[in-house]
Each structure stands twice: as structure tokens, then as C-alpha cells.
């Protein structure tokens, strides 16, 4: 079927191309007619040029002939002048009258000669200009002819290439057409077979539907006749699903309300710091300082509302019975709402005093004072409505004291509507106040932006309270209905009854699942014995391995303790060695001083040796005593009492302390590094999640752009094919036109050559004359 649609689309495309080609053919016909008309006009222009050329050649011949006559006339006049001069010399002796007559005749000849010379010069200039113009026109025509020949050769090469290319495409398209025709025939046969199969399937479907309807009627009649008990009391209606859905919607509205309240209190705090006194320039009043301090603590009262309601939503699951008696988390929400209401009552007098302080400002107008008074009444009204809401929510949190909850829910819905109206009035009055403040001359950009943000928070607060009021009114029937009780009963469930009911429900579900599950196949006795033997051996081996692991872990711990002990012993040995080296150096220095200062060095050496012998004996005696135990905060150590016992003990304590302090420092640094890495990884994961979401969105947009680009490409390819065809037709027409023009140019060239030859012959004849 897809191939048939492809064929149809191809045929439609071919039809469109045929229509385009027909339109282009008309255009090309018109272009051919225009070209023919232009060629005729060019021929006429060429004839006119030829005629003008002939006229100029005739004029040139006549001028050359006239020039020759004038040259002969000049020669004759020069001869006559020479003769007259000779006669004048001879007749000098004669009177004045003949000389005067000769001078007059001489002046007449001179003037005539001057005129002839000027005329000859003018004719020479005209002849030269005509010759130059002829040469220039001839060079232009030759260059144009060469360009046209080059263009014709290029066009001919392009036409040849396009003809070969499109002959190949025509052959390929013909072969594709034949193949597609065969394919369409096979697809038509398959379509017929599919229609027959679909008809058979529809008949089978009708038979199955009739059979199923018959079985349903039969089973329903059997159930009505044979089943003695049919519980249609809807005792366990699935209202927990509805309750969870309602709680989820309410959670979204509460989150919007919390965000709007946070923004409202924060922007109110900013406004207190800006107006009527700017805290960055001069200190504000103590009342406004206290008010801003209280407003700064608003998150501690507003955030718990969202958290407690989220816990309430999470406590409603499929395994719980959702009624007022079993929803324990409602009490936490009521307590948090009460704390927020107390917060509003606490900031109410400060808010009223702040508005009064704005009225006492020097630039406060009467209209602003009126709006501030209206805002005072609005804040009082909003606080009183929140107090009413607190009372109703506290009553719902203690359902055992209620006789009927429907009245409480109805009053709560009305109270929510009144809250929406009060906040709406407050937003309207504040908007009017902000517009009046913009007209003041001392208003700053900071105050205007804060007022705009405050108006935005009031708008979001109005919309969120309106959504909550409409949501509560729409679900009022669900809130007032008795979800888990038999029909016609007004008795509500207590938590114990709800737990027993859920336990019975789980037992019934488990029983039904056990009935539905197929029983497993029995295992043969020998296979069961082998499995038991394998199981006991595996458990014994597992117990042995666990014991080995515990022993190895204990051994590792003991070795670690010994390692720490010997490390401390090594450090103590290093300290003792340093002290012994220092003592030996002191003794050597004392010995050198004694030997250098005493007159009898042998006696001094003997005395020092005796002293050292006595010290060694004392050390040996001290070493022979019993060992003593030294205890400290770190542990116990067996030592032998020596002279330097106290100093060693203090150094050991100091070394142990420094060692453990270094270990504690290393562990704290490792802990800080791990915490920072965890925070860094967490932030990276969040950033990657955001980037992934952005990448998904960008991928979708890019896929759509790619689709649009592909569509544009196909459209442009079609247009390119049509333009190619039109250009090919135009090129063919132009090639024909160029051929005709070449023929005409060759004829004109021949005529020009013949005319040139004729003009040369005429020039030679004139020269011969």
C-alpha cells in the first residue's frame, strides 16, 4: 500500500511539473517572439549603418576628388603668382597705377588661396574622423562577435552535458516506472487478499462477540439464580484513592499559597526599609525596625505549613482508611496554622503603625491617607479571617468532639471565600496606592520596583486563595460525605475499627491471590534429600567461612593495635637515643673542660672515670629492681624505674597526644573533604539533571526543526528541478537564436568585406584620375 501511495505522489508531482512546463513553454514562446523582433530591429540597424557607411565612402571619394582639383588649382595659382611676380619686377620702372593693380590682384589671389587651404584642412579632418569611426565600429563588432562565439561554445557545451545527463535520467525514470508498475500490480493483488482477510476476520469477530454475549447472559442468569449472597452495600468504597487525589491537589494549592505569602512578607520588609525613610541614607524609626525584624522571621512560620501538609499527603496511602479520626497529621498542620495566625496577630499593630507613619510623612496627600486607612481595615479583616480559619481547622483536627462535620466544612468553605475577597480588596487598594505614589516627586526607582514586586505577590496570593476556595467548594460533597460507613448509617469509624477492617481486607486479598496462583509441582523424594544435603553442607561451609572471616577481622584489629604500640615504642626509643646522645656530648664537653682546666690531667681523668663508673653502677642497681606499671589516659605501659623516669613518661604522653591529635586532624580533614565531595557531587547531579531536561527539550525542538528543514529541502529540490528544466529550455532556445545570429553575422561580414573591396577599388580609380 505504501508503494501505491508513493506512485500516486510521484504521478501527482509529474502532473505538477507538466503544468509548470506548459506555463514555462508559453513564457519561452513569448521570449522567442521578442528575440525575433529584436533580431529584425538589429538587421534594420545594420542596414542603416551600411547605408551611412556607403554615404560616408562616397563623400570621402568626392572629397578626395575635390582635394585633388584644389591641389591642381593651387599649383596653377602658384605658377601664376610666380609669373606675376616676375612681371612686377620688370614693370617697376613703370608708373604707380600698374603696380597698384598688381597688388590688388595679388591680394585677391592670396585670399582665395587661404580659403582653399582652410577648406582642404577641414576636409582632411572630416576624412580622418570618418576613418577612425569606421575602424572603431569594426573593432567593436569583431570583439562582440568573438564574445558571442565564446558564449555560444559554452552554451553548446552546457547543452550537450545537460542532454546527456537528462537522457540518462529519462532512461532511469522509465526503468523505475516499469518496476513501479510491476510493484503496483503486486500490491493491488496483496490489497485484494488483505480485504478478503479483513472480511473473514470481521465475520469471526462478530461470531466471537455473539458467543461472548451469550456466555455473559448465561453466567449472569446463573449468578442471579444460584448465588445466595451479593454484597452491594458498598461498605468499602475506594474513597482512599479520591482522598489521596484531593490531598495532592490541595498540596499544590498550599505550595502556591506559601510561596505567595513568603514573597508578600519579604517585599513588605524591603518596603519598610525604603519608605517613608530610606535606611541607606538615614536610620528608620524603632517601630519599623521591630516590624522588619518580625517580618524577617516569616519563613519560620510559613514554611512549616507546606511541610506539615506534605506529611499529611504522604500519610494517605492505599493501606490506610482516610477519615478525620485516622488522619493524625492534620493536628500538626493545625498547630502550624495556629502559629502562623499568632504571627499575623503579632505583626498586625506594627503594620497599622507603619501605615500611620506613612500618613504622617510630609508629602503624603489626602488620597494617600485615605488609601492607607483602607489598607488598615483590609489587614484587620485578613487577620480576622485567618483567625476564623484557625478555629475551624482546630475543630477538624479534634473530630471526637464533633457531632456533625458537614457544618464545619461548609463554614470553612465560606471562610475561604471571604479570605479571597478580603485579599482581593487589599490588592485593589494597594494598586491604587502605588499609582498615587508614582505621582509623588520624591519617588525612587527602588521604591517603584519594590511596589511592583509587592503588587505581583498580592496578585499571586489572590489567585492562590481563589483556587483554594473554588477547589474546596467543588469537593465539599466529598468532605461532608461518610466515606467508610454502610448506607444509611451515621456511625463513624474509630482507629481500631479501621485497623481491623484493613487487616481483614489484606487477608481477603491474600486469600484471593493464593487461590489464583497455580500450585507448584511436587519434588521427588531423592531429589529433595540431595537438595537438603547440599543445603546443609552449604550452610555449614557458610558458617565456617563466617567464623574464619570474624577471626581474620579480629586478628587484623589486634595487629593494628600492635602496630600502633610498636610505632609509639619506636618514637620513644628515638627520643631516648637523642637524650643519650645529648648526655654523652655533655659528658665529653665536661671531660674536655676538666682536662684543659686541671693541672693534673691524669687525676681529672681518673675522677671523671670514677664518676662514670659510679653512675653505671647506680643504673645497674636501678635496673635490678622490679618493673612498675605506668597508667595514663591512653593505656598501660610496663616500665623500669630509672633516674629519667619522669621525663620519659612526660615525653611519652606528649608524643602520644601529638600522634593522636595528628590522627584526629587527618580524619577531620578526610571527613571535610568527603563532605565537600558529596555536596559537589550532589550539585553536579542536580545540574546534570537540569541539563538533561534542557537537552531533551532542545532535542525535541531540533527534531521539529529537522523535520521542517527536510520539508523545505524537498520543496527546494522540486523547485530546483523545475528551474533546471526551464533553464534548459531557455538555453536550447538561446542556442538556436545564437546559431541564427551567427549566420546573420557571417553574411554581414561577407557584405562588409565586399564593400571594403569595392571602396578600395574606388579609391584606386580616384587616385588614377
Describe this protein with a few key phrases.
single chain; 769 residues; mainly alpha; two-stranded antiparallel sheet; PPP1R21_C; RNA-binding; Protein phosphatase 1 regulatory subunit 21; endosome; coiled coil
Written overview of the protein:
The protein has 769 residues and is mostly helical. Helices cover 85% and strands 1% of the residues. It contains 14 helices and two strands. The protein has helices at residues 2-90, 96-226, 239-274, 286-296, 299-315, 329-359, 366-397, 406-438, 445-474, 476-480, 495-516, 525-597, 601-623, 645-768; strands at 628-631, 636-639. The chain has a two-stranded antiparallel ribbon with strand order 1-2. The longest helix has 131 residues, at 96-226. The model is unreliable at 227-238, 483-491, 598-606 and 616-644 (pLDDT under 50). Residues 44-58, 612-624 have a biased composition (Basic and acidic residues). Residues 131-218, 685-726 form a coiled coil. InterPro entries: PPP1R21 (IPR040024), PPP1R21_C (IPR049372), PPP1R21_N (IPR019343), PPP1R21_six_helix (IPR019348). This is Protein phosphatase 1 regulatory subunit 21.
Outline of the structure:
The chain has 769 residues and is mostly helical.
Note the gap between the termini: 96 Å
Strand content: under 5%
Reported for the largest beta sheet, the result is:
2 strands, antiparallel
> Helix-strand pattern, N to C?
HHHHHHHHHHHHHEEH
**Mean pLDDT figure:** 77
Which outline best applies? elongated
**Residue windows where pLDDT falls under 50 for at least 5 positions:** 227-238, 483-491, 598-606, 616-644
* Spatial arrangement of strands, main beta sheet: 1-2
Oligomer: single chain
Amino acid at each position: 500500500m505504501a508503494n501505491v501511495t508513493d506512485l500516486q505522489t510521484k504521478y501527482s508531482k509529474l502532473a505538477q511539473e507538466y503544468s509548470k512546463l506548459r506555463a514555462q513553454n508559453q513564457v519561452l514562446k513569448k521570449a522567442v517572439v521578442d528575440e525575433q523582433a529584436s533580431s529584425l530591429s538589429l538587421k534594420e540597424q545594420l542596414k542603416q549603418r551600411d547605408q551611412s557607411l556607403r554615404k560616408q565612402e562616397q563623400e570621402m571619394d568626392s572629397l578626395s576628388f575635390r582635394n585633388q582639383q584644389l591641389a591642381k588649382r593651387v599649383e596653377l595659382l602658384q605658377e601664376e603668382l610666380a609669373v606675376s611676380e616676375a612681371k612686377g619686377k620688370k614693370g617697376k620702372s613703370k608708373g604707380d597705377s600698374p603696380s597698384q593693380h598688381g597688388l590688388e590682384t595679388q591680394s585677391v589671389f592670396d585670399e582665395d588661396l587661404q580659403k582653399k587651404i582652410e577648406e582642404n584642412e577641414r576636409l582632411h579632418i572630416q576624412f580622418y574622423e570618418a576613418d577612425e569611426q569606421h575602424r572603431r565600429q569594426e573593432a567593436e563588432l569583431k570583439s562582440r562577435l568573438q564574445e558571442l562565439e565564446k558564449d555560444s561554445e559554452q552554451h553548446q557545451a552546457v547543452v550537450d552535458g545537460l542532454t546527456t545527463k537528462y537522457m540518462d535520467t529519462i532512461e532511469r525514470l522509465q526503468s523505475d516506472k516499469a518496476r513501479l508498475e510491476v510493484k503496483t500490480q503486486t500490491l493491488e493483488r496483496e490489497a485484494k487478499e488483505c480485504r478478503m482477510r479483513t472480511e473473514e476476520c470481521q465475520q469471526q469477530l462478530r461470531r466471537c462477540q455473539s458467543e461472548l454475549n451469550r456466555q455473559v447472559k448465561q453466567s449472569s442468569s446463573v449468578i442471579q439464580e444460584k448465588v445466595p449472597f451479593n454484597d452491594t452495600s458498598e461498605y468499602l468504597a475506594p474513597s482512599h484513592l479520591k482522598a489521596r487525589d484531593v490531598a495532592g491537589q490541595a498540596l499544590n494549592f498550599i505550595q502556591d499559597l506559601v510561596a505567595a505569602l513568603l514573597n508578600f512578607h519579604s517585599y513588605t520588609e524591603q518596603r519598610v526599609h525604603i519608605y517613608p525613610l530610606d535606611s541607606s541614607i538615614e536610620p528608620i524609626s524603632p517601630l519599623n525596625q521591630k516590624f522588619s525584624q518580625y517580618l524577617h522571621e516569616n519563613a519560620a512560620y510559613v514554611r512549616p505549613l507546606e511541610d506539615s501538609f506534605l506529611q499529611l499527603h504522604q500519610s494517605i496511602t492505599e493501606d490506610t482508611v482516610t477519615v478525620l479520626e485516622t488522619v493524625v497529621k492534620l493536628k500538626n498542620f493545625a498547630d502550624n496554622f495556629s502559629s502562623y495566625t499568632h504571627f499575623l496577630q503579632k505583626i498586625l499593630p506594627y503594620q497599622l503603625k507603619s501605615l500611620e507613619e506613612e500618613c504622617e510623612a510630609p508629602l503624603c496627600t489626602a488620597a494617600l491617607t485615605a488609601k492607607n486607612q483602607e489598607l488598615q481595615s483590609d489587614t484587620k479583616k485578613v487577620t480576622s479571617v485567618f483567625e476564623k480559619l484557625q478555629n475551624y481547622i482546630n475543630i477538624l483536627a479534634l473530630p471526637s468532639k464533633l457531632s456533625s462535620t458537614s457544618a464545619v466544612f461548609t463554614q470553612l468553605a465560606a471562610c475561604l471565600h471571604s479570605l479571597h475577597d478580603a485579599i482581593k480588596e487589599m490588592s485593589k487598594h494597594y494598586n491604587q496606592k502605588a499609582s498615587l505614589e508614582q505621582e509623588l516627586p520624591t519617588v525612587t526607582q527602588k521604591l517603584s520596583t519594590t511596589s511592583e514586586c509587592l503588587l505581583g505577590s498580592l496578585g499571586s496570593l489572590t489567585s492562590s486563595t481563589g483556587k483554594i476556595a473554588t477547589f474546596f467548594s467543588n469537593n465539599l460533597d466529598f468532605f461532608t460525605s461518610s466515606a467508610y460507613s454502610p448506607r444509611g448509617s451515621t456511625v463513624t469509624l474509630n482507629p481500631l475499627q479501621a485497623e481491623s477492617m484493613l487487616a481483614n481486607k489484606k487477608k481477603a486479598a491474600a486469600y484471593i491471590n493464593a487461590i489464583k496462583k497455580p500450585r507448584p509441582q511436587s519434588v521427588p523424594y531423592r531429589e529433595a534429600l540431595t537438595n537438603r544435603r547440599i543445603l546443609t553442607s552449604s550452610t555449614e561451609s557458610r558458617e565456617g567461612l563466617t567464623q574464619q572471616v570474624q577471626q581474620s577481622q579480629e586478628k587484623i584489629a589486634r595487629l593494628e593495635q600492635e602496630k600502633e604500640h610498636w610505632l609509639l615504642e619506636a618514637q620513644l626509643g628515638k627520643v631516648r637515643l637523642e637524650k643519650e646522645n645529648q648526655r654523652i656530648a655533655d659528658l665529653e664537653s665536661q671531660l674536655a673542660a676538666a682536662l684543659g682546666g686541671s693541672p693534673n690531667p691524669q687525676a681529672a681523668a681518673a675522677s671523671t672515670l670514677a664518676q662514670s663508673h659510679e653512675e653505671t653502677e647506680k643504673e645497674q642497681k636501678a635496673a635490678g629492681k622490679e618493673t612498675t606499671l605506668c597508667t595514663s589516659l591512653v593505656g598501660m605501659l610496663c616500665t623500669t624505674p630509672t633516674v629519667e623516669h619522669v621525663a620519659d613518661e612526660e615525653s611519652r604522653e606528649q608524643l602520644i597526644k601529638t600522634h593522636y591529635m595528628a590522627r584526629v586532624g587527618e580524619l577531620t580533614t578526610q571527613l571535610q573533604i568527603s563532605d565537600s565531595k558529596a555536596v559537589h557531587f550532589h550539585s553536579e547531579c542536580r545540574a546534570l539533571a537540569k541539563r538533561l531536561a534542557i537537552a531533551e527539550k532542545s532535542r525535541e525542538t531540533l527534531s521539529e526543526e529537522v523535520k521542517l528543514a527536510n520539508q523545505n529541502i524537498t520543496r527546494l529540490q522540486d523547485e530546483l528541478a523545475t528551474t533546471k528544466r526551464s533553464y534548459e529550455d531557455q538555453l536550447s532556445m538561446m542556442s538556436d537564436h545564437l546559431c541564427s545570429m551567427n549566420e546573420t553575422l557571417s553574411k554581414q561580414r561577407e557584405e562588409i568585406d565586399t564593400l571594403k573591396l569595392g571602396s578600395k577599388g574606388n579609391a584606386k580609380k580616384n587616385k588614377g584620375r
